[in-house]
Amino acid sequence: MSSFDLLLLGLALAMDAFAVSIAKGMVIRRYLLPNAFKIAFFFAFFQGLMPFLGFMFGCIFDERLTAVSHLLSFLILTFLGIQMIRSHEEPDDCLDIKNILVLAVATSLDAMAAGLSLAFLEVDIIIAILYIMAVTFCLCFAGAILGKKLNKILKNKATMFGGLLLIFIGIKIIIDQISSLG
């Protein structure tokens, strides 16, 4: 794969993480840069880890696991979105490590299937992972900052919109999975 192909792959895999980073950025009240860095770091780490796992264990994973990963992503994102809307979490609760880790895993499950594909294409997995992680980090950092700016526009409705965004991303993942089957 060319560098351009790897860049496009990184962009495609990072889109869900970018959207969730915007939602997380909406609840940042203070310490913008450290929180944006934390969000970007965890999303980039898991976007790199999952293709590696898919690549290394390619013979174990099959299409059924890919379908389950989409369903699992949908359930996690929808649950967290509903929880965010219902509880009106304080901004700091939305940015704790546990919350970010769950979202990072949920948005990176589809990257495992990409790792499986990379194994079949005999791509240098280290180079591919570096591209994926760099693109994800940059997009998620920018997404968190963009979310903070949106918070100023949305005022006290940011948590609700962030929760709705998580639910929308979960629904989009399922719709994409269903449309790829038919």
UniProtKB/TrEMBL annotation:
<protein>
    <recommendedName>
        <fullName>Putative manganese efflux pump MntP</fullName>
    </recommendedName>
</protein>
<keyword id="KW-0812">Transmembrane</keyword>
<keyword id="KW-1003">Cell membrane</keyword>
<keyword id="KW-0464">Manganese</keyword>
<feature type="transmembrane region" description="Helical">
    <location>
        <begin position="67"/>
        <end position="85"/>
    </location>
</feature>
<dbReference type="GO" id="GO:0005384">
    <property type="term" value="F:manganese ion transmembrane transporter activity"/>
</dbReference>
<keyword id="KW-1133">Transmembrane helix</keyword>
<comment type="similarity">
    <text>Belongs to the MntP (TC 9.B.29) family.</text>
</comment>
<feature type="transmembrane region" description="Helical">
    <location>
        <begin position="158"/>
        <end position="175"/>
    </location>
</feature>
<feature type="transmembrane region" description="Helical">
    <location>
        <begin position="39"/>
        <end position="61"/>
    </location>
</feature>
<dbReference type="InterPro" id="IPR022929">
    <property type="entry name" value="Put_MntP"/>
</dbReference>
<dbReference type="InterPro" id="IPR003810">
    <property type="entry name" value="Mntp/YtaF"/>
</dbReference>
<keyword id="KW-0472">Membrane</keyword>
<dbReference type="Pfam" id="PF02659">
    <property type="entry name" value="Mntp"/>
</dbReference>
<feature type="transmembrane region" description="Helical">
    <location>
        <begin position="125"/>
        <end position="146"/>
    </location>
</feature>
<feature type="transmembrane region" description="Helical">
    <location>
        <begin position="6"/>
        <end position="27"/>
    </location>
</feature>
<keyword id="KW-0813">Transport</keyword>
<dbReference type="GO" id="GO:0005886">
    <property type="term" value="C:plasma membrane"/>
</dbReference>
<comment type="function">
    <text>Probably functions as a manganese efflux pump.</text>
</comment>
<keyword id="KW-0406">Ion transport</keyword>
